[in-house]
Structure formats: structure tokens, C-alpha cells
Amino acid sequence: MFITPTSDILSSPHPSTCILKHKMQLPHALQEALEVEITAAQGSPAALASASSRLSARYLDGDFAGVFSAPQMRAAYLAVRFPATYCSNARVFRDIHDAAPDFAPRAVLDLGAGPGTSTFAAAAEFPSLERATLVERDASLIDIGRRLAPVATSLRTDWLRSDLASGLSDVPAHDLVLISYTVGEFASGAANALVSRAWRLASSVLVIVEPGTPKNFERLIAIRRSLVSAGAHLVAPCPHHQECPMWAAQDWCHFSQRIERTAVHRRLKQGSLGYEDEKFSYLVAAKQPIGQAAARIVRHTKKNPGHVQFQLCTPQGLQRQTVGKSQGERYRAARKSEWGDSWE
Would residue 312 be called left, alpha or beta, if left means φ above 0 and alpha means ψ between -120 and 50 degrees? Predict the structure, then answer.
């Protein structure tokens, strides 16, 4: 059973008071292209609202079989899930860049690509990328992705319609391999097989991103152990290769990215706030050591008058640290620190 600390943002009745990464929004041209797709597919506002509710329920359950067969479901994804997925992935790619600023992939493989959401975010963070291979089983999402790609990226994109459960025998190795919001769709055995294939296809780095729930974190813990056993070098968020201290404490490692809501998003979520906080967990593994933080802030920081407090994941386990004003530059760095940041 997982224990939720009272300091966790998930327990806060006022999430706007929590310290989060700066609010993200989609590139303007991409947002406009999405709105064109949403308008073309949504039907009545009531139908889109109903589709959004069903999609959210299926998303939490990890049950996506046949979910995008209806135009309204695809529109709901583009309005609600696309921005959240894009921005959480963008946050992860920024963490990779912080840990390994010299990492310059040229080719990306996106497994369970949907309409290209994660690939588009990767292209924005890594200008070295030249081409992308996107594997997706739903033909309608591939069609949307092909229409969005010229707006979202200058990459040469190759789309492969394939069920990930059937194997990836014809796919070559790529520098960067992505499995974003996909592992949870599979039973544990099939998920492990998918990750093993993805690891073989990653000539440099494998990135896995999942919703930030205890259930998904439990799945990532098993994957983490398997990758470490296979000789993987962890890049982020882990600052070490030992057993996860969050897991040992019956807690779960997750982070949050604040996302700017569009008018359609607010209407569908019936929210008054102009933002939403996307919770996610992730794992970045490399074939060779390319960088790793000394420690990671795993709870939102408490910035009090004259001192800052935060909880760190370190090679020595979970540690609480207080940085006072008398510590000068270290204190100024702590004032800027946020949940999910590395800490040197």
C-alpha cells in the first residue's frame, strides 16, 4: 500500500499555491492546427464533453482498445490529452538536456506514437533530430499526425501502422526511442516484452513516460530493475542505480507540469482555472553513461522567509535538506529550485 505524504501536491486543496515548473503551452502554430482538427471532428459541444469524460476514465484505467474509433473521441484527445502529453514529454526532454547537454540524437523512434505528440515535443527540444519513425496502430491517428507534422516539425517522418504487441522486426535502431503513455495499455508480461524490444532498438537513449499514479510507478519500478540488470545507465530522474528509496518508503516518484488551458479545455474539464497540472512518472536510460544528477528534488520545495526546505533523492537514500540565507549563492539557487529539479 502506498502512503501519500501530507506535503504532496496531490493532497493540497489549493494546487495553485504549490511550487511547480513554469506553465507551458503548445507552440502557437501547432495549437491552431489542433483547433482545426477539433472543429472538423467534434460534432456538438455535448458530444465532445461526453467523449472527454469517457476518454478521461479510459485513460485512468489504461484501457485504450478501440477508444479512437469515433471522431469525437479523437477530438477530445486533441483538446485535452495532446497538450498534457506534449508538455510532460517536453519537461522530460528538458531534464535529459540538463543532465546531458551534449546529447544530440539524429533519429527518434516513437512507439505508440498516436498523432505524433511525443515526437513533436522531442523535435522542439533536440534541434539535432533529422528524422522520425512513428509506430501507431490506429489509422485515424496516423492521418491526423500526417496533417499536423508539417506544422509541428521539419523532421522527415515515416509512419508505420503496426500493433506493438505483434513485434517490431522491421524497425531499425534509432538514437532516441520513446514509449510515452503506452506501457500502461499492456499487461505486465507484454509491457516487459515491449520495453525489452525498445531497449534493443535504442542505440543511445530510451525514454518511458507514464501517468503519475502509484499503479504506473509500480510498473516503472519493475522496468527500472530490468533495465539496470541489462546494463542500462540511468539518466533521469534517478541520481543512482540502487533500489528506489521512494518505493522502499511505500511512496511513488512522480512530478507535475503546469499546462495552460485553452477555452475548449476549460469547458470540457469544467474548470475555472486557466491551467492544469499534469502528473507524470518517467524513466530515462542510456546505453552509455551520458550524465546523471547528483540528487533530485522529489517533493515541492518549501520556500520560507530566510530558508528553503526540500526532500531529495540521493545515492544515500531520501534526505531532507534546509538551505539558509547565510549560505549565499547556494540559498539563491535553492530559492529558484522546484519539484523535479536536479540538485548538485
Answer: beta
**Mean pLDDT to the nearest integer, 268-296:** 87
* Euclidean distance between CA atoms 39 and 333, whole angstroms: 45
The letter for the amino acid at 260 is E
Dist. CA 336–CA 106, nearest whole Å: 32
Q: State the helix-helix crossing angle for 117-125 and 139-152, rounded to 10 degrees.
A: 20
Question: First CA to last CA across the chain, in angstroms?
Answer: 32
Mind listing the pLDDT tens digit for each residue in 323-338?
A: 999 999 999 999 999 9
How far apart CA 250 and CA 6 sit, in angstroms, is 14
**pTM for the model:** 0.89
pLDDT value at 119 more than 50: yes
Rounded Cα distance, 181 and 58, in Å: 12
CB atoms within 10 A of CB 15: 17
Distance CA 108, CA 99 (A): 19
d(CA 246, CA 238): 11
Distance, in Å, from the CA atom of 300 to the CA atom of 75, rounded to the nearest integer, reads: 33
What count of other Cβ atoms lies within 10 Å of the Cβ of residue 71? Answer: 18
Q: Locate cell 538551505: which residue?
A: 323
CB-based contacts of 188, cutoff 8 Å, min separation 6: 219, 222
Could you tell me if 320 and 311 are in contact, meaning their C-beta atoms sit under 8 angstroms apart? yes
How many residues comprise the chain?
344
